[in-house]
Specification:
3 domains; four-stranded antiparallel beta sheet; about 45% strand; about 270 residues; 5 helices
């Protein structure tokens, strides 16, 4: 009877009230945390599904640059293998801690009209250099300058020959071959990952941007590896062995309690 009175007295004490309020507060915060985690997991799943089906989008920016983009993955190397094995292997090959990884394959293609529009600073033609009695070398240079950053500079040589009888009654010009001697090309490229959209339409996108007019993207993909994972605070209930210092109300003294119990995780790592 005395033990029941002590228990009843403790239940009606301020200390028990404070403990009860703290437990309820932790439970409510934990519930909110779990709901937040579920929403985040659903958002990441939706992002990865979108990245699987998305195609490359091309836009012209206000400054005239060409920008290509598509939805990116949010996954580490292990998770990424379910969606994109090649990108997963690329992540595994890196040393150190990978934060993001992007991959792009592009071509440089221009037609005759585009090339003529950007040709600049053609050097004065040099006279052919005679190689032997019937062959000459013609040197040439082509400089395509698109802006201060992007350009393609080429030099080359064309061999021509003259064939015909000794009396020169009929002369035939023969092309003996052309070779590219030097190439100096520079491409300014901005690329990375960015968030676009708002609310449910917000998506992580990998993008590449350049002013080079010949830039044509064949493949563009990326993944955000080191994204914030699940919350560590208030992660929920669990069952397991316990070792606590408590209070023995029957003997009215502190006690060490060992056993199996239900516990609530305030912080997990």
């Amino acid at each position: 009877m005395e033990a029941l009175n002590k228990i009843w007295k403790f239940v009606n004490s301020k200390i028990f009230g404070y403990i009860l309020i703290a437990v309820i507060a932790i439970f409510l915060v934990g519930t909110c945390g779990r709901v937040s985690n579920l929403k985040e997991e659903a958002r990441i799943k939706d992002q990865n599904i979108s990245a699987l089906s998305d195609s490359i989008k091309t836009v012209i920016l206000k400054n005239g640059d060409l920008q290509v983009s598509r939805d990116a993955f949010m996954a580490d190397a292990k998770e990424l293998r379910l969606f994109n094995a090649e990108l997963s292997d690329a992540v595994k090959l890196q040393t150190g801690k990978v934060v993001t990884l992007n991959r792009i394959i592009f071509q440089l293609k221009q037609d005759t009209a585009e090339l003529r529009a950007f040709i600049r600073n053609l050097p004065d033609p040099k006279p052919p250099e005679q190689e032997n009695d019937s062959s000459w070398n013609v040197s040439w240079a082509l400089n395509y300058v698109y802006d201060s950053t992007n350009y393609d500079l080429f030099t080359g040589r064309t061999r021509i020959g003259l064939r015909g009888p000794l009396d020169l009654s009929k002369i035939t010009v023969i092309h003996n071959g052309t070779e590219l001697l030097t190439r100096n090309s520079q491409i300014g490229l901005i690329w990375g990952q960015k968030w676009e959209g708002k609310g449910k339409d917000k998506k992580l996108r990998v993008y590449a941007q350049t002013a080079h007019p010949a830039f044509q993207t064949q493949l563009l993909e990326g993944t955000y590896v080191d994204y914030p994972k699940k919350r560590h605070w208030f992660t929920g209930f669990g069952v397991g062995p316990t070792l606590n210092i408590g209070y023995d109300f029957l003997n009215n003294q502190p006690a060490v309690v060992v056993g199996v119990g239900i516990h609530y995780n305030i912080y997990q790592w």
